[in-house]
């Protein structure tokens, strides 16, 4: 949690440390994504995403991030990538698609970037 | 008393499970990765372990943020690979070894490690993909050992330190070696190496750091305990913290090991993929 004068983490550019503060902020969002481990819940989301988000009491900012497929915003609102990956699955996005969306690259460019680090 | 034969590490990327299912072993993208495994198969065929302790990290199947154990040990008769959200076909259950599980739990708690015991534990790709890589067709492989899953938290900070992970392995070794059965045990460390899935830095891979870790974990793992957790995030990427599983495995092997096999390849999916087979003296 935020404690004035105390920071457990160093700042790493482009990286959000998923700690207690983030885990509390994103609890409902991640809980919704955790529910997508079950096919019937994925179907319920696909049928009526708004109602499903409401059921998990997502904040307006979290709903907005999901409506616009803005992964960076989902992370800023407390989303954890392991749970968000289940949401990405519903939209049939690969981890390279997700990487491209976050870095402003096409999936092809993102794959080239990965290979360039060999 | 039981004997620890050695340890095997591997990345456990979900895409690997998919490639195995589609038998892409000679595909140009996959071949350099799968080339790391025939030597492991030979070693396992020659040594035939009775038990496998599979140290992995759950990715949001077995545990949620409501209760997040730092170190969890499975103590079930079998372990099911359930749907992780992608609707992939799940496998038949993996046979467990609850008597070994409870021996580990008793021994490690007595040794002052605070363990969460799990009589039910759905296992995800972190557990399953390495099993499929090492025992083709797993769990339907005649040599498939009975298993004990151990999961460490890398989902949510604070995560364990590298020193704690290595010490965990040292304590696990004491537990395994005192198991009163003439049994052969292999220890797996799965996950890593460098990768980051989230944020503007998504796609980050660090070959130099991975090589440094591969080099030191064999004969000088204590050197790696100097790396702080934030330094690990910075250098290995946010999900590269899975290297903790390798440290846990390494601690269980004792001081004298010989390296039988090593493979490293970039990229597999978003990851610097590493494989290591270490044999105990
Ligand atoms: Fe992983």
Helices and strands in order:
The complex is a heterodimer of chains A (118) and B (281).
Chain A: H1 20-25, H2 27-35, H3 39-47, H4 49-55, H5 60-67, H6 71-76, H7 81-90, H8 95-103, H9 107-115
Helix pairs in contact in A: 2-7, 3-4, 8-9
Chain B: E1 3-10, H1 14-21, H2 31-34, H3 38-47, E2 51-56, E3 71-74, E4 78-79, E5 94-95, H4 98-110, E6 116-118, H5 125-134, E7 146-152, H6 162-177, E8 184-190, H7 207-219, H8 221-224, H9 229-236, H10 243-251, E9 257-268, E10 271-280
Parallel strand pairs in B: 1-8, 2-7, 2-8, 3-6
Antiparallel strand pairs in B: 1-10, 3-7, 4-5, 9-10
Structural overview:
The complex is a heterodimer of chains A (118) and B (281). Chain A has 118 residues and is mainly alpha-helical. Chain A has a domain at 20-91: Orthogonal Bundle (Protocatechuate 4,5-dioxygenase, Chain A), CATH 1.10.700.10. Chain A has 9 helices and no strands. The termini of chain A are far apart. With 281 residues, chain B is of the alpha/beta class. Chain B has one domain: Protocatechuate 4,5-dioxygenase, Chain B (3-Layer(aba) Sandwich), CATH 3.40.830.10. Helices cover 34% and strands 22% of the residues of chain B. Chain B has helices at 14-21, 31-34, 38-47, 98-110, 125-134, 162-177, 207-219, 221-224, 229-236, 243-251; strands at residues 3-10, 51-56, 71-74, 78-79, 94-95, 116-118, 146-152, 184-190, 257-268, 271-280. In chain B, β9 and β10 form a beta hairpin. In chain B, α1 packs across α5, α4 packs across α6 and α6 packs parallel to α10 (243-251). The longest helix of chain B is centred in the middle third of the chain and has 16 residues, at 162-177. At the A-B interface, α2, α6, α7, α8 and α9 of A face α9 and β9 of B. Bound molecules: fe (ii) ion. Fe (ii) ion (FE2) binds at residues 12, 59, 126, 191, 242 of chain B.
């Amino acid at each position: 949690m935020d404690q004035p004068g105390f920071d457990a983490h160093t700042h790493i550019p482009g990286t959000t440390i998923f700690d207690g503060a983030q885990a509390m902020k994103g609890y409902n969002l991640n809980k919704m994504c955790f529910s997508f481990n079950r096919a019937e819940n994925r179907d319920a989301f696909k049928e009526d995403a708004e109602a499903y988000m409401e059921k998990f009491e997502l904040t307006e900012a979290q709903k907005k991030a999901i409506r616009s497929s803005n992964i960076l915003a989902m992370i800023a609102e407390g989303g954890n990538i392991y749970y968000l990956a289940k949401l990405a699955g519903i939209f049939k996005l690969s981890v390279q698609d997700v990487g491209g969306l976050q870095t402003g690259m096409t999936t092809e460019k993102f794959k080239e970037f990965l290979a360039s680090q060999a | 008393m039981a004997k620890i034969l050695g340890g095997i590490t591997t990345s456990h990327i979900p895409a690997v499970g998919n490639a195995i299912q589609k038998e892409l072993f000679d595909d140009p993208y996959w071949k350099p990765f799968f080339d790391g495994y025939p030597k492991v198969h030979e070693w396992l065929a020659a040594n035939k372990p009775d038990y496998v302790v599979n140290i992995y990290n759950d990715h949001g199947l077995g545990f949620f943020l409501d209760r997040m154990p730092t170190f969890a040990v499975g103590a079930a008769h079998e372990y099911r690979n359930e749907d992780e959200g992608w609707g992939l076909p799940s496998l038949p259950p993996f046979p467990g070894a609850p008597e070994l599980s409870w021996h580990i739990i008793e021994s490690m708690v007595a040794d002052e490690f605070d363990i969460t015991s799990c009589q039910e534990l759905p296992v995800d790709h972190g557990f399953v993909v390495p099993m499929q890589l090492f025992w083709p067709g797993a769990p339907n492989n005649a040599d498939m050992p009975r298993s004990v899953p151990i999961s460490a938290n890398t989902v949510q900070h604070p995560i364990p330190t590298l020193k704690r992970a290595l010490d965990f392995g040292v304590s696990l070794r004491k537990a395994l070696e005192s198991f009163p059965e003439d049994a052969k045990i292999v220890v797996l460390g799965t996950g890593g190496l460098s990768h980051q899935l989230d944020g503007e830095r998504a796609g980050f891979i660090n070959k130099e750091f991975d090589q440094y870790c591969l080099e030191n974990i064999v004969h000088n793992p204590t050197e790696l305990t100097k790396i702080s957790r934030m330094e690990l995030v910075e250098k290995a990427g946010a999900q590269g913290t899975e290297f903790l599983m390798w440290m846990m495995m390494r601690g269980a092997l004792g001081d004298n090991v010989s390296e039988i096999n090593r493979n490293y390849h970039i990229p597999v999916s978003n990851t610097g993929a590493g494989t290591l087979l270490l044999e105990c003296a």
